[in-house]
Structure formats: C-alpha cells, structure tokens
Amino acid sequence: MDAPTRTASVTLTHRFADAVPEMAVAWRADEAPTPELLVLNDALATELGLDPAFLRSPEGIGLLTGTAPPVGARPVAQAYAGHQFGGYNPRLGDGRALLLGELTAPDGTIHDLHLKGSGPTPFARGGDGYAAVGPMLREYVVSEAMHALGIPTTRSLAVVATGRDVVREQILPGAVLARTAAGHLRVGSVVFASAHANASGDRDVLVRLVDHAIERHDPETAAVTPTDRARALLDAVIARQADLIARWMLVGFVHGVMNTDNMTLSGQAIDYGPCAFLDAFDPGAVFSSIDRQGRYAYGNQPGIGEWNLARLAEALLPLLADDTDAAISVAQDALDAYRPAYNEAWSVGIRAKLGLADAREDRDEDAVPSLVTDLFDLLAFARADYTLFFRHLATAARGDAAPLRALVADPGPLDLWLERWLALAPDADAMDRVNPLYIPRNHLVEEALAAASDTGDLALLHRLTDAVRSPFTARPGLERYAEPAPDAFGPYVTYCGT
Description:
Blueprint: E1 5-7, E2 10-12, H1 15-19, E3 24-26, E4 36-40, H2 42-47, H3 52-56, H4 58-65, E5 76-78, E6 82-84, E7 87-89, E8 97-104, E9 110-116, H5 133-148, E10 155-167, E11 171-181, H6 187-200, H7 204-217, H8 226-251, E12 253-254, E13 276-277, H9 301-320, H10 324-335, H11 338-353, H12 368-382, H13 386-397, H14 402-405, H15 411-422, H16 428-432, H17 442-455, H18 459-468
Antiparallel strand pairs: 1-2, 3-5, 4-10, 6-7, 8-9, 9-11, 10-11, 12-13
C-alpha cells in the first residue's frame, strides 16, 4: 500500500483502490464555479479528527468538493452492479460520486470520505452527475436523525453549494454532499465481482474483494481460507442487515429504494433519496415517485432485505464451495438465519417501545405476542400517527390516556387494548428513552428544503436538525416539531434527486 497522503490536517489512504483496482476508476470532481459551504457537521468532523476551521477555509472547501484533494490522493469512482426494482443491471457504479479515500479517526476506526454530486463519471449512464441543494440537505438532516436514533448509518459531513445550476423539472441550485461511512461496499459490489469471476473464470477479484470487506468490517474473524471468509462475510452481513431493517421498522422509516446497490456490507443505511418517516401508520406506505408497484413499501422492507441478501449469497457461491450444489446448501443455511435474527431484533425492540423490556415474575409473558399483534391491527385500522402514538402511550402508562385517545376516531378498541397492556405494568420512563418525540417529519423537511433552495435561508434546516439530534427529550419551543403534518399536506411523494 502506498504511503498515506496529507493536506493541512487531513490524511487519506486508498485501501479500496489498492485492494481491487479493477473496481476503481481514477477520476476527478468537476470544478465548483462559486463554492459556498452551507452546513458543516462540526461534531462529526471533530470525531473524525478533522479541524472544522480548516474545513471552512478555501482549502477545506476544496477538499469537501473534491476539487482540491490532497497531493497524491487517488479519488475513484467505484464499480458495482445492482438489482433495481428487481431487474439486474450489471454495470451501475458511482455515476455522480467519488471515493476520495479513507480517514483514520483518533479512535482507530476507518471511515470512507465520499462525495455525492461531484460530476459525471464513466458510470453516469447519460446523467449529468450533479446534485441539487435540496436532496443533499435532505440526506444531511435525515442521516443525522438516524444517527441520533441509534440506527447504523452513513453520516453527512458537509453540504457545499457549487454555484452551478442543475436542470431537473426546473432549474435548481447545485450542491455536493461530503459523507462518511464505515465503507461503501454494497451487495452490488460483490455481484459485480462475481460476474467478473463467472465471465473470466478467474475468482481473484472476488477473493480480494471479500478479503477487503473482511478487513474493513470483520477484522476479528478467524476465517483463513477463501471459503471460510466468504461464509463469515455472508453470516455477518445477514446479521447486520436483519438488525438494521428491524430498527427501520421500529421507528417507522421507509427507505424507498432498497435496490441491492443500496444495501451495504457494513450494515449502515445509505442513500437517503426517496425516503420518509411514517405519519399515519400504514404497512403499505410508499413515498417514492418511482415505486409504482409498492415493491419497497414500509411493510415489505423485511422481505426485500431477505431478497437482497439472497442475491449476495448467489454472488458468493463461487467461494462457498467447489461444488455448486454444496455451495447452494451453504448459502441457504446462512440465509435461514435471517428471519429468526430479524424477528428477534424486532421483538426485542417492540417490547422496549411498549415498556415491557424487563422480564418480571408477576407479568404474563405469554400475553405479549397477541398484545403486539392486536396493537398493529389497531394502528393500521385507526391510521394513528405512529411516532406520537408511542410517545402518548407512555403518558397513558402514567395515568393520562387522553392524548392517546385523541389520536383515534373510535377509542373503544384502544381502551380495551390499554386495559390489557396496563395489566403488564409497563415502564413509562423506559419507553421515553426509546420512542422518539422528534423525527424528520415530512412536512417539516419539505419546508426547510424549500426555504434553503428558494431563498438560501437555512434557519429552518438548522432548527429541524437541532430537534432531531436529540429525539427523545422534550424541549420548550420545539412543540411544532412533534406535531403531525397538517391535513392539507399530502399525499407525500419523494424523488431520487438525480
């Protein structure tokens, strides 16, 4: 590996490009005509060992836009394949993104420094490669909310306006997002390498990619042979994704575009394009303008996660065993762990949301599963606000059920359910520690993005970001950030931002 490169206060390595150069296309970001820093995540910068003052300087902004990378750095566009809405595309890749390199934080952890909207690459497929201010700020606020909710996620370091107009349905101001991640390896990365192996008969690229993934995400593994390492990686990704998707479901998050190129090996959520949080509870909720069949609806996400992981298992078949039938058996054995892992993560999480996490001798534990099933039937029928329902449930546990009853048109069935639930002695304080009060409510996100895009006013964005960074604690002055959308808002539709 080449020596790290350094600029002012930033050191970058190029581990991915060194490990699998066949999947790394050297590229440079387009110039930003008049760059202007819109938001900088000071806390994240400090956590990564970066100097916020430097990042605000012209040299720092050059780093954040990719127009002035460190001397000797090797920015690359990553190659990967993907199944988009179930259809296989063998060559996607970073069409408008660049991996500048890897940062080592003071605690020794390694993070990708990655750009989005930095201009077209050879993978652009006819797109302009740019991004608009609104979608990049959406990723900033949503990823900060997800992090505060305890959900593994890529993080947004900064959004820089480029001074370039971006043509979509209308002309919009352009921007570049600088984000960090435990890694940008995806299910689609393995699919790409596997296709190379199948076409060439040479498994070396796939072996090196698996080795690199193990080094980045599971360095503690004791696996020594390619077969063992492939199985270890598959097991680890399945476990991480089962946990991640359960966490999405528990907070009412809808990713919107769960293609295999948007499922990371690290288990972090990535790419906040057509995403949203539930207002009224609806298992069939779809917010993406391009998901016309509801493939990625809220209630479908656990099943889609399993489908994506099956594509990962297929891609790893050449390494799982020398005999195809034996490899399929190994892959199926690994995949069989997904549903129990998801169910366990979701079960633990929903018990915590209901204040029933602690086992008690005086509690009828057998009553909990039917209580949960009946609750979600009730929520779906009443279309109650998902986030507020659980917050007001804690208030009901303290003796005041009025706010909760006000969320449903007919409180009769709710009252019967409450009687059963209260008999289990829920812990209201514990509920408040896991049920958020503040989420990036869709109407507030749109309000903040419109102000930022139309007039350059970032005050609403800063206020919203401040609220969602401390989602569990009620604070004076933030009342509107805990309220449902007004009746006039909706139906809500989001777009991919390309």
